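Pipeline run #58 for the internal structure catalog. This entry was flagged by the ingest filter as a single-chain record with no existing model, so it goes straight to prediction. Upstream metadata was stripped on purpose; only the residue string is passed forward. Reviewer on rotation: M.T. Logging verbosity set to normal.
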Amino acid sequence: MEQDITLLPTWVSRDQNKIADGRTHLEDPCDWTLNAVVFQKIVAQWGLPTIDRFASHSNHLLDRFNSMLRCPGSVGINALAQRDWSEHFNWCFPPFNLISSVISIIRQFSAASILVLPL
């Protein structure tokens, strides 16, 4: 308003917007998951978590999941920004660079969690 600028959104078809649309189809190199058999063994031992904190539409192990980017089915973006950790039994298989942050969040919220880490 200070600069007297008016923005008007305009729809652009996908075929005329290849550069911007291409960003929505980038693959995440950290988009991997635990083997389903191993997951089932962990669940048999510790119980079924209620939310998958570090997932995507293609690798989530639970119906409720948080994703890094907006995607179909995600109930929240950026697990570390969510404030409901204490309300869930959290499944946490974070990217390695987020491990210390996840441990801090679990402690901060006294959140019941299964945290999968490399040996």
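catalog note: The chain is about 25% helix and 15% strand.
catalog note: Residues 14-115 form one domain.
status: ready for reviewer M.T.
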